[in-house]
């Protein structure tokens, strides 16, 4: 089966409007790693330790070049995108040839919508699929290129998200800086399990209610 665009705008020139929507999406996506870290305090401690060791007193201009050292923090983001993909259903495709998928005949011209969310939470492919466990990516070959079909946060094939490089570099850097510059806690003695995880799903998935956390500055002397 070939993946074919249903829409006319060319992929190389996404409209400004589309660009804005996706930027907003990347921005919204920032809540998810933060909230998962609040729900999993051990993960928060490990990620924060890693970031603070790597960024230790370094000039902020140098942070980007240190991202390669943040193996654990990047696994946290990978796991967040598994459980909370902003596009749970991939963009619609048209089947260009009649084919057989897992015993199902898919006729030419059928509109196909892939449920990436369901595959990323399937116990057929993941141990304790509903659990947030960043370490699962330590020895996993699942990456963002869309070749492992159980993990498609950026889609796959010809429709793979063209903003992937920009989205990841921004997301990883901002999460790392939030961990470096702030200590995070829950308001009014709230417990991690009380955090509201409601999601509104439309074309994209996003938190239903705003996230409220207490950020206390972690003061770092900076070398220039
Ligand atoms: C964490 C952030 C993001 C995630 C998880 C994400 C994920 C996705 C996914 C799953 C698709 C559909 C791929 C498919 O159906 O196979 C997609 C398409 C797309 N993304 Fe992203 N995206 C993100 C950020 C961005 C950003 C920042 C931009 C632009 C600057 C962008 C631009 C696009 C465009 C233009 C398409 C449509 C491609 C097409 O029509 O073939 N995305 N994205």
TrEMBL record:
Membrane topology qualifier: Single-pass membrane protein
Highest rank taxon of the organism: Eukaryota
Named cofactor requirement(s): heme
Regions that span the bilayer: none
Pfam families: p450
Cited PANTHER family: OS06G0641600 PROTEIN, OS08G0105600 PROTEIN
Protein name: Cytochrome P450
Native species: Setaria viridis (Green bristlegrass)
């Amino acid at each position: 089966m070939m993946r074919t665009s249903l829409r006319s705008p060319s992929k190389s020139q996404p409209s400004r409007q589309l660009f804005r929507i996706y930027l907003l999406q990347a921005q919204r996506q920032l809540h998810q790693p933060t909230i998962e870290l609040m729900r999993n305090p051990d993960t928060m401690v490990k990620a924060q330790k890693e970031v603070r060791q790597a960024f230790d007193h370094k000039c902020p201009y140098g942070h980007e070049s240190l991202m390669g050292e943040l193996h654990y923090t990047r696994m946290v983001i990978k796991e967040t995108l598994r459980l909370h993909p902003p596009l749970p259903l991939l963009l619609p495709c048209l089947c260009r040839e009649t084919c057989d998928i897992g015993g199902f005949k898919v006729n030419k011209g059928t509109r196909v919508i892939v449920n990436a969310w369901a595959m990323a939470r399937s116990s057929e492919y993941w141990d304790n699929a509903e659990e947030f466990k960043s370490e699962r990516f330590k020895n996993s070959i699942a990456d963002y290129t869309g070749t492992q079909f159980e993990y498609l946060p950026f889609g796959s094939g010809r429709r793979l998200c063209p903003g992937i490089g920009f989205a990841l570099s921004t997301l990883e850097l901002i999460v790392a800086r939030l961990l470096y510059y702030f200590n995070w806690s829950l308001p009014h003695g709230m417990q991690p399990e009380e955090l509201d995880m409601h999601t509104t799903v439309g074309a994209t998935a996003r938190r239903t209610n705003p996230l409220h956390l207490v950020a206390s500055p972690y003061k770092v002397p900076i070398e220039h």
